[in-house]
Amino acid sequence: MGDGEQDFGAVWRRTPEAVRRCLGLAYEAVAAGGLAVGAVLTDAAGTVLCEGRNEAYEEGPGRGPLRGTPLAHAEMNVLGAARTGWDLGSAVLWSTQEPCAMCAAAARFTGVGEVRYLAPDPWALADGSAGQSGARPAGRAVWLVAANALFLRSVAMAAQGPAEPPILTHHRTAEPETAALHDALAPGRPAAASVREWLGGLWPLVTAAAAERDGRS
After folding, report:
1. CA dihedral over 140, 25, 147, 77, signed as positive or negative
2. 53 HSE (CA, 13 A, CB side)
């Protein structure tokens, strides 16, 4: 990894808006006590048209049209914010996690042109369904480990009892670098004001985890 990759500010500035916003939404979700998944819909030029985060486990007022229901995945909230008259054939749906079967089917049904994701869904890795959505990975290990560290933290926060959540246990074998990054986080909800501030403080750990993962794969 070159010196330029160690400069978080430079890397963040040249990262596509869709990636930055997906991570920001995932961070907002875990900071609110929800499941850390964020998604956006962009036009062909990469401009964000609408956005959403997972709100399935949150009650009360919120932004997503499906908040508090089993359908309130990040991608479903994004598609619920799109308008019927939009030409989605040239649009790209981005998510921090590979979409589940429901969200992948909704993207196909609504005619979204392309679906991209930053990290494999830990649940899909555990049940063997990873890579079956038809979506395309974004291909940057730094964002993969960052997205899944947030996801694992949100799962750990929601766990009942002292036992480690099975998804985190499985990730120690499937994605050991991400599990180690998760373990290095301060306990509880993240305290940084934004995902940029959070990542900036963790950047040496994120880049080290990404380099280890690249070396393994």
Report:
1. negative
2. 26
